Amino acid sequence: MPFPATLDKKPKVIFFTDFDGTITLKDTNDYITDNHGFGVEQRRAGNKLILDGTDSFRDGFQKMINSWQVSLTEMISILEQNIKLDPHFRNFVLWAKEHDVPIVVLSSGMVPVISALLKKLLGEDLMKDIEIIANETQLVAPDNSLDKKGGWNIKFHDESAFGHDKSLTIRPYANAIAEMPNENDRPTLLYAGDGVSDLSAARETDLLFAKAGHDLIVYCEREGIPFTTFEDWDSILEETKKIWSGEKTVRKLAEEGLKRHRTNSSSRPLPTSGTFNRKTSLSQEQRPVIQE
Ligand SMILES: [Mg+2]
Known about the structure:
GO molecular function: phosphatase activity
CATH topology: Rossmann fold
CATH architecture: 3-Layer(aba) Sandwich
Structural class: alpha/beta
Distance between the termini: 35 Å
Region (Disordered): 255-292
Protein name: Phosphoserine phosphatase
Strand order of the largest sheet: 4-3-2-1-5-6-7
Keywords: Hydrolase
Bound molecules: magnesium ion
């Protein structure tokens, strides 16, 4: 159900989430690049250029896609055989359905890939309520076919340096909610993510679930963005239930998350300062370098 209809049922919580590496255990685009494209070493080298601001996420991702030796149809079938969802995601979806919590997938991947995987791994019945906002695909001449290697390409969601600027979807929600006259009607906006593609969403919600052991956490801590860590969707579900029932506030969970993160990673040095390259939605101030 797209915005603003999502707000009609007066949900207490709206849950936005990344797809690759957050709902899935492995990143689908990395998997194809490593096994059917220019390989893991070149991908890592490209990733460093994105992280230090030399290359944009959009251009780095396009280079990965240009190296893929498969049609979209083949890609989907390879992923269906090799990618698994977080084993607890299904339970989260069931709980969300029962409690009128909309789930919106915001991804830097492509809609047909995500929807095929959710359909296969979650089932059509459960996936049909999940809104997917991501890049699309387009046909390329002369082959003009998703069944042929050179017959298709990605069609980016917007003009941003991310290809898909996730804040563009979340912000209208935040604005509409801010205008709700009754404070008790205002839903809490949550987001779950793990990586660089989530930086465009990180500032937009009330609380961010950042995957433990991944560097989105370092960015959030340095930038003062409220976050809590998660291991899997079981821990996300437990904390979301507390927010939904009013047992805990997002502020309390963010404080606990920060404390837990600091206890677990006290020996880990923070990266040195640098710049992160982004064209839209966030200011051009100095950004930390985020190590892979
Ligand atoms: Mg991800």
